[in-house]
Amino acid sequence: QRDPQPHLSDAERSLGQRNLIGMAVLEAVGDTFISSIASLFLLSLGSAPFYIGLLATTEHFQKIARLVGIKIVPRTGKARLMSASRALAVLPVIGLLALTVWSRPGTSTVILALALIAGREFLRQTGNTVWWALIQDNTVGDAFGAFMARLRIRQRSASLVLPIAVGWYLGTSPTHGRFGWLFVAGIVASLVGAYWALGIREGRLALQEEGAFGQLRRAIKVPGVAWLALFMAAHHLIDAATGPMWVIALKVHGLGAMAFVWMGSVAALGQLISLTGWGRLVDTHGPRSTLSTTLLLKAVLGAAWLFLPSDTVGLHVWTALFYLIWGVLDGGHNMGRTRAMMDAVTDENQVAGFNAIMYAGSLGGIVGGVAGGWTFGQTIESSLSWGGFPVSLVYLAGIQALMVVPYITSRKLAGYADQASTRDVVMSLS
Asked: Following DSSP, what letter does each residue of 199-243 receive, concatenated?
């Protein structure tokens, strides 16, 4: 095995970072027109809660495509693999566009739409094999948290404005045909993003004597990678078992599709107002205190589902506050988790190391999506209550409270003992 080339020069990193940010913004734009409305599109076709849970599962299952990426990236290079995956991923969206014109609502159409959405994600995941490797290549020697804050602020800025327009366009109860122009916009954004990806600078990959599975096995044997993989599996399981069910719970309680789409803007606002602070915190103190704070507060926030208002004004205010707080916490969690990955993975097994962690998260997401979709479907149809609260809301509160589990696993992450505790950080800020 040969060591990779030296780190990129300052000029190369600067150019690479600009292109990474440009592609990431276009990804956010495309996702606003496709991924963020996928559950609403399925509901417009008559989807049951089980298929909404299955949608969350497919988002993780398609990461099997990263095995393909690990295999072919030595021949394509990282940037070209990323670009090609984005260009090819428009093909399933063209299929979704056809459904808006020529299909009728029904179970068979829901399944076909789900397959197309999964196909798009499969192609994108082939390129995502190298996403974190490209981030690592272009941030070595720079303030990582500051760069990620810039990237995500620009991403969330797009996510702040566009959902408002999308929600206004869809209205309260959109028919499936109304999604067509949104898919067209998503196709255009994806193609432009593919072009931007070609300009991302990259470091040379270390030569690997093993195949994809061998590289993954070797990567997962590294203790820092193994603990981070367990952390990701626990977090994604809980997230997939709750997050996709929010749209169903809120719709049942009277929130319209337009308002739900707007909540994407509110969550983006939460990230925007906090990402710079989270980035500085991670750069100064490491990911320990950020992960501890955000995970425990996410667990506590789950109790808010037990107090979901029944009146229209109260429901909208509650939902906006929930998504705003969630955006703040999720921004910090993502920042801390990403920094932990950068610290755990070395150049010698770069691509496989990141993807071993991602696969573990996918496994948790698959279990959480299937089990959560089925279980929540049972609770939403039930008239039972627990402690005076609808059992469906008890489910959301209880499962989200389990965010304490990934918090426990985060205490085993590499460098945890050497980083400042939350108490120490608070004392230093006071």
From this structure: T---PPPPP-SS-HHHHHHHHHTSHHHHHHHHHHHHHHHHHHHHG
Give the pLDDT confidence of 240-295 residue by residue, as tens digits.
Answer: 899 888 888 888 888 877 777 778 788 888 988 998 899 888 888 889 999 999 99
Give dist(CA 142, CA 358) in Å, integer. Answer: 24
Q: What does the alpha-carbon distance between residue 48 and residue 352 come to, in Å, rounded to a whole number?
A: 37
Q: Which residue has the tokens 């750069």?
A: 283
- Helix residue ranges per DSSP H, 243-311: 246-252, 257-272, 275-285, 288-301
- Residue 405: beta bridge partners? none
- In the numeric block, which tokens belong to residue 248? 């169903």
The three-state DSSP-derived secondary structure of 235-255 is HHHHHHHHHHHHHHHHHHCCC
Task: Say if pTM beats, i.e. exceeds, 0.90.
Answer: no
Q: Which two three-digit tokens encode residue 184?
A: 């067209």
For the residues of 347-374, what is the DSSP string, one character each?
GGGHHHHHHHHHHHHHHHHHHHHHHHHH
Residues of the chain with pLDDT under 70: 1-7, 60, 141-143, 206-211, 347, 383, 430
- What six digits make up the tokens of 229? 């993989």
CB 339 within 8 A of CB 135: no
How far is it, in rounded angstroms, from Cα 380 to Cα 247? 12
Interatomic CA distance for residues 190 and 30, integer angstroms: 6
Q: What is the per-residue pLDDT across 107-132, written as a single tens digit (0 to 9) for each?
A: 999 999 999 999 999 999 899 889 88
Residue 66's φ and ψ, nearest 5 degrees, are -65, -20
Residues sharing a CB contact under 8 Å with residue 177, sequence separation 6 or more, in sequence order: 100, 101
Helix (H) or strand (E) holding 390: strand 389-390
Residue 386: strand, helix, or coil:
strand
